[in-house]
Specification:
Blueprint lengths: L6 H4 L17 E2 L11 H11 L11 H11 L6 E4 L2 H12 L5 E6 L4 H9 L2 E6 L7 H6 L5 E7 L11 H10 L5 E5 L15 H4 L5 E6 L12 E4 L2 H9 L8 H12 L1 H24 L11 E5 L4 H10 L2 E2 L1 E3 L3 E5 L3 H15 L1
Parallel strand pairs: 1-10, 3-4, 3-5, 5-6, 6-7
Antiparallel strand pairs: 2-8, 7-8, 9-12, 11-12
Helix pairs in contact: 2-10, 3-10, 4-5, 4-9, 11-13, 12-13
Bound molecules: 4'-deoxy-4'-aminopyridoxal-5'-phosphate.
Keywords: Aminotransferase, Pyridoxal phosphate, Transferase
GO molecular function: aromatic-amino-acid transaminase activity; histidinol-phosphate transaminase activity; pyridoxal phosphate binding
Protein name: Aromatic amino acid aminotransferase
Length: 352
Amino acid sequence: MPRFRMILDTMPAYKPGKSVVSPEGRSYKLSSNESPYDPLPSVVEAIARAAAGVNRYPDPASVRLTEALAARHGVPVEHVALGGGSVAVAQQLLEAVGEPGTDVVYAWRSFEAYPTLAALSGATSIRVPLKDETHDLDAMAEAVTANTRLIFVCNPNNPTGTVNRTAELRRFLDRVPENVLVVLDEAYREYVRDADVPDGLTFYRDRPNVAVMRTFSKAYGLAGLRVGYLIGHTPVSSAVRKTLLPFAVNHLAQAAALASLEAEEELLDRVETVVKERTRVAEGLIAQGWTVPPTEANFVWLRLGERTMEFADHCALWGVAVRPFAGEGARVSIGDPEANDAFLEAAEAFRS
Ligand code: PMP
């Protein structure tokens, strides 16, 4: 019998969002916070062109994409580090900082990969409960110990969609010791419309222990290709580069991400439509009598407690796949208008 690390016995496997099909054959996947749009023709063309070169390994340093991202964000090229999705970047970070005897602090509930990746690295998770569905930054600052190496702040938070604003974030960062890395996970940054929610890069600029994580999977619509990145000062970015699996960002992914940056205006117009639909869905739910925490992401959160799994099964009858967290609630992505209508119908029927 092969032997494995004991930690695997206690580690939950990552549960990806599923698809469902209604008895009438309808299927709306609102379980993974993906973009509901097909890729732009210019992006598909770039992928097709890149496909002609896949007998060769990709550029291991993703030089063109790294330069394009540095220019896009006005940061030095050395401060940009890529990974195969931002979940891989989070893993690279944890491999760089985590070991037995160290702590990783994050809010809970938040992105479900944090506990798994922390456990794999050997670090201990310190979960700080949400307060009013939002990161409790004071409690998170208090949770820091001499062993703390990393704090994740997910802003907006997955799965609640809630945000932390400029003044409280600044106060929090002022309290965190300089030898603790704070990673602002901004996977949903492009959907934020509240002007008081800062772009994490404003904090990174004058704080060497603050880094920002972004992804091409959501607003840029490349979830299937796996590209994410970090922007941080050289000790942080070089740690992420060192822990990158060789060639983890493949040739097609690099080409598609570059083409997406070139088509950014068009992609961000699509985000605007999702944001309008978010307002329509949230208002529709509130009119039905639901409590919906204010969301700045491309999803809504319904706290359903013990009825969570029943709700997910109910939505499946409408062909709507949601993301249930048993005993807590369901996260529902904003899709195209037809999918959102199907979800609103399902939600209304659940209440009656
Ligand atoms: N961070 C957060 C908060 C997320 O919700 C997700 C995706 N669900 C990720 C990171 C990872 O995204 P990806 O690996 O596709 O870039």
